[in-house]
Amino acid sequence: MSKDRLTGILVHPTSFPSAYAVGDLGENAYSFIDEAARNHVRLWQVLPLGPTGYGDSPYASRSTFAGNELLIDIRSLYMDGYLEIEDIMIPEIVTERVDYGKAREVKMPLLRKAAKNFLSSMGDDDRKAWEKFLADRSWWLDDYALYQSLCDEYGDSRWFSVWSTDLRDRKKKALDDAAARHFEDILIWKALQFFFFRQWDALKAYANGKGIRIIGDIPIFVAPDSVDAWTNRKLLKIDENGEQEASSGVPPDAFSATGQLWGNPLYRWSEHEKENFSWWISRLRETLRMCDIVRIDHFRGFEACWEVPRGETTAMNGQWVKSPGEKLLKALGSALGNDLPIIAEDLGVITPEVEKLRDDFGLPGMKILQFAFNLDDEGNFDADNAYLPHNMSRLSVAYTGTHDNNTSKGWYDELDDRHKDLVRRYFECSDDQVPRAMLRYLLMSNAKWAIVPMQDVLMLGSEARMNVPSTCGTSNWSWKMKKEDLTSSNWGHIGYLSKLYGRA
User: Fold this and answer.
1) Catalytic residue among 297, 303, 346, 485
2) Is 416 annotated as catalytic?
3) pTM for the complete prediction?
4) Lowest-pLDDT range, 38-52, 388-402, 471-485?
5) Buried (b) or exposed (e) across 485-497, using 16+ Cβ within 10 A?
6) Active site includes 345?
């Protein structure tokens, strides 16, 4: 049996139990790793780890290089000597779901206090680590810290419409004046990034020491109000006034009659080619410093992107515009090694050209079990569906569902009677056993990696769904585990199946 036949769990750190309204990189993250290792889980997949803005979507980060400050563990800062005991003795914030607003209200003052104490009293070892951190990351950290300070000053991240024209256009005098005006805040933001990466690096080393590799995630596009867009306008289809010339999205399909208008700026690929894709090389290199493997979200955009002209209110009137995917992947391989540890998110309507690009570079695609039970045009079961376990190719990563899907239990509960009957007959089980059977068949499949959302490990219903695409609300990105979930008896089933099907 091949030694790379592995089981993984998908859960974002924000979902770990915490006393501060949002999960963090503290003791419960370590407990998760311990329980995963005990049950033969060898892959841990996370969502993008960057700082979030409006809506708190990890896929609309304020920076492609920075870490989310809300994930910093407060208790570790106390153990490091940067907070007092009374700072961490606050009553537990009891919330059923992640409450980002409450987390910011409670955590940010403590984080800022710890940063100030760190900056004013660091010892020799911390000073060496701090100076090395600044030297290694100043190429993105300086802009990020200034950007966050300006977001605070304006109370708004929309650099293109709210900030002054000189700051929008990054005039040197305006930048110098802002840097002087926010000197202390800039240092604080840098210190918070130091805290994040020190804690994340320690957690990753612990996971790797337990035999667990971490799968990270790169959204193909950057957010329009991000520091990435502010500092890289020439690489994006953004005009001299900071306005997007076109927006990203997907065309109308069976799921949406008007398509999806995402609103991200598109890449000006000709400029990337002039620089031999140096920005993308830096982006992937930095993500691989944080993670062992990277999932590229919306991989089909490497072959062609759906571009919607400025002023459109839906994605209906867009067009496919070719991307230099082959040149980009060759440049990445040349710079970072030809055996790129990339998973291609190849879901949706995928063309032969996208499949060829994926296969030419030997990248595994994704197979979603929940997508396997659609009826064909004549209303019959399609036994050739590529997402059915018996059809899954070895060079693929199989999931019951992703962060954008309902939980397996929730998915099954919401099926109509005809589809429920089809699913029951395929798995040969009763209604209440379908979610458990889905795990069995997923891990039994030929796919080299089988990854299960934590909600499916725990057999939870729709109440535990992580995200509903194309919606914005407090229920998105806010699922949170309970403390007892870290030691749930359901873990044992994953461990048993991993051994049974050669994934241990």
Assistant:
1) 297
2) no
3) 0.96
4) 471-485
5) bbebebbebbbeb
6) yes
